[in-house]
Amino acid sequence: MHNISALLFDLDGTVYRGTEAIPGASNFIATLKGRDIPFLFVTNRGNRRPAAVADQLVSMGIPCTEDDVLTSAQAVAMGLKPGTTIYCLGEEPLKSTLKEAGMIIVDSADNHEVDAVVVSYDRGINYEKLSHALRFIDKGARFIATNTDRLITVEDGILPEAGPLVAAVQAATNKEPEIFGKPEKPIMEAALKRIGIPADQCVIIGDNLFTDILAGHKAGMKSILILTGVANRKDGEHAEYKPTWIAEDYKDLADILFG
């Protein structure tokens, strides 16, 4: 397997599209399980619990448990010290993930000081939340973003993901966020810690050159661009940070990895 001991997968566009598994994904993952090859689904979504992601994958016929899933919220939790006081501009799964890791969550600006503001996907965004984030960061709190993805694709079109909310806080504070999700290193370091395999023995598999493949480059991993999502072969061949391999589909992926 080209000195590869573990695989990291993106989800949307790589393992599933909409509500359907991508052809071949289920059998491929089952093969990994059967061969005891370590793998992890690595997602930038900060508003979903790993158990919910695993349930979705199982419903599509993909064998998975919550231990096979790493979210950007978990990456933040792994990167902060227990006892850190946090204001979340995000949804309940983000808050509960941080709480379970020993963080102290503050829900308003009244008589509180916080160590960090964590900004993520939030369908309940409003002016009051934005104001709290601004004030805490202005007083010296760290400005952390789970991720900066611009859009999320849903069944009836597209919606804003975390990126536009991070940009709003950035514009208000004039501060740069610490980004924990792909393509930045914290989520990849969290994945390596979880899976217990060195970076040079891991490969990341994804459909996006600017998150998945760039994440692999920054983390010192091999990468495979799979052409089941947003990128095509020409994109991969002409990218600034080229993937190690390009796979047309899961049959091609199996040929690359298992020969």
Write the SSE topology.
Elements: E1 6-9, E2 16-17, E3 20-21, H1 25-34, E4 39-43, H2 50-59, E5 69-71, H3 72-79, E6 85-89, H4 92-100, E7 104-106, E8 116-119, H5 127-138, E9 142-145, E10 151-154, E11 157-160, H6 162-173, E12 178-179, H7 185-195, E13 202-206, H8 209-219, E14 222-226, H9 233-237, E15 245-247, H10 250-258
Parallel strand pairs: 1-4, 1-13, 4-5, 6-7, 6-8, 8-9, 9-12, 13-14, 14-15
Antiparallel strand pairs: 2-3, 10-11
Task: Put the structure in a nutshell.
The chain has 259 residues and is α/β, with parallel strands linked by helices. 37% of the residues lie in helices and 21% in strands.
What does this structure look like?
With 259 residues, the chain is of the alpha/beta class. It folds into two domains: 6-44 and 182-258, 3-Layer(aba) Sandwich (Rossmann fold), CATH 3.40.50; 80-179, 3-Layer(aba) Sandwich (Rossmann fold), CATH 3.40.50. The chain is 37% helix and 21% strand. The protein is built from ten helices and 15 strands. The strands form four sheets. A six-stranded parallel beta sheet has the order 5-4-1-13-14-15, with helices on both faces. It has a five-stranded parallel beta sheet with strand order 7-6-8-9-12, with helices on both faces. The longest helix is centred in the middle third of the chain and has 12 residues, at 127-138. It is elongated, with a radius of gyration of 18 Å. The mean pLDDT is 95.
Low-confidence stretches: none
CATH hierarchy class name of the largest domain: Alpha Beta
Identify the CATH homologous superfamily of the largest domain.
Answer: HAD superfamily/HAD-like
Number of extended strands: 15
- Which class of secondary structure composition applies to the elements? alpha/beta
Strand arrangement in the largest pleated sheet? 5-4-1-13-14-15
Sketch the topology as an H/E string, one letter per element. Answer: EEEHEHEHEHEEHEEEHEHEHEHEH
Rg over alpha carbons:
18 Å
From the coordinates shown, what is the CATH architecture of the largest domain? 3-Layer(aba) Sandwich
* Straight-line distance between termini: 8 Å
Describe the sheet with the most strands: 6 strands, parallel
Give the tally of structural domains.
2
In round numbers, the mean pLDDT is: 95
The amount of helix comes to 25-40%
Task: Give the percentage of residues in beta strands.
Answer: 15-25%
